[in-house]
Amino acid sequence: KNQVEQSPQSLIILEGKNCTLQCNYTVSPFSNLRWYKQDTGRGPVSLTIMTFSENTKSNGRYTATLDADTKQSSLHITASQLSDSASYICVVSGLPGGYQKVTFGTGTKLQVIP
Amino acid sequence: DAGVIQSPRHEVTEMGQEVTLRCKPISGHDYLFWYRQTMMRGLELLIYFNNNVPIDDSGMPEDRFSAKMPNASFSTLKIQPSEPRDSAVYFCASSPGGPHGELFFGEGSRLTVL
């Protein structure tokens, strides 16, 4: 069964600090992996997409990494801001294509405090 | 573009009542999805449409749930009769498709069944 596991479940950090969120998956064969940010009371919004051949991608203060061999991804947030407080959801798409093959993690809830 | 529009944002109803949730996808997107999000299970795909045709409804919990997409700009998710365990946030999302199609989520409809 395809699974996506995220850690930690929740995290509290001080404003200005860095943090790293983890995502392990068993989806195979692999197509792509996305990180979504979900603010409280809002819908998820895509931050990055990683395909098989990519191992690092940045979007401002967010940097995602992918190790397709170990089936692991991480999302690193640099110089955190209060607005980074949200849930971060790892979403993995498998092959063959089709949205039935999309598996969601349960998310990491990040709280950035002053 | 206004994004994916969902209504109502909040719905409180009594057990046994009919609930109808509505969604307007982003114009030009060929795919429309209904998801349910709970603390315990995260985001779960209920059903998705391609060009107004239901493709996969295997995630629909039971016959009490039904979804329609009468045209490219409107979809409904209906629960009849509703039960307390249906309480969740229901998200509609749309996508332009393609092998790495990003999901664009609405703000969600928070349903509470008493």
Keywords:
heterodimer, A: 114 residues, mainly beta, six-stranded mixed beta sheet, five-stranded antiparallel beta sheet, 58% strand, B: 114 residues, four-stranded antiparallel beta sheet, 11 strands, globular
Helix tally of chain A equals: 0
Give a quick account of the main beta sheet of chain B: strands, pairing sense, barrel closure: 7 strands, mixed
Cα-based radius of gyration of chain B, to the nearest Å: 13 Å
**Shape, per Cα inertia axes of chain B:** globular
Beta-strand percentage of chain B?
over 45%
* Strand content bin of chain A: over 45%
Order of helices and strands of chain A: EEEEEEEEEEE
Structure notes:
The complex is a heterodimer of chains A (114) and B (114). Chain A has 114 residues and is mainly beta. Chain A contains no helices and eleven strands. In chain A, the strands form two sheets. In chain A, strands 2, 4, 5, 9, 10 and 11 form a six-stranded mixed sheet that branches. Chain A is globular and about 45 Å long. The mean pLDDT of chain A is 92. In chain B, strands 2, 4, 5, 6, 9, 10 and 11 form a seven-stranded mixed sheet that branches. Chain B has a four-stranded antiparallel sheet with strand order 1-3-8-7, with no helix packed on it. The model of chain B has no long low-confidence stretch (mean pLDDT 93). Chain A binds chain B through residues 31-32, 34, 36, 41-46, 49, 51, 89, 91, 93, 97-100, 102, 104-107, and chain B through 4, 31, 33, 41-45, 48, 55-56, 58, 91, 93, 95, 99-103, 105-108.
Question: What topology emerges from the helices and strands here?
Answer:
The complex is a heterodimer of chains A (114) and B (114).
Chain A: E1 4-7, E2 10-14, E3 19-25, E4 30-38, E5 45-51, E6 56-59, E7 62-67, E8 72-77, E9 86-94, E10 102-104, E11 108-113
Parallel strand pairs in A: 2-11
Antiparallel strand pairs in A: 1-3, 3-8, 4-5, 4-9, 6-7, 7-8, 9-10, 9-11
Chain B: E1 5-7, E2 10-13, E3 19-24, E4 31-38, E5 42-50, E6 53-56, E7 65-71, E8 74-79, E9 88-95, E10 104-105, E11 109-113
Parallel strand pairs in B: 2-11
Antiparallel strand pairs in B: 1-3, 3-8, 4-5, 4-9, 5-6, 7-8, 9-10, 9-11
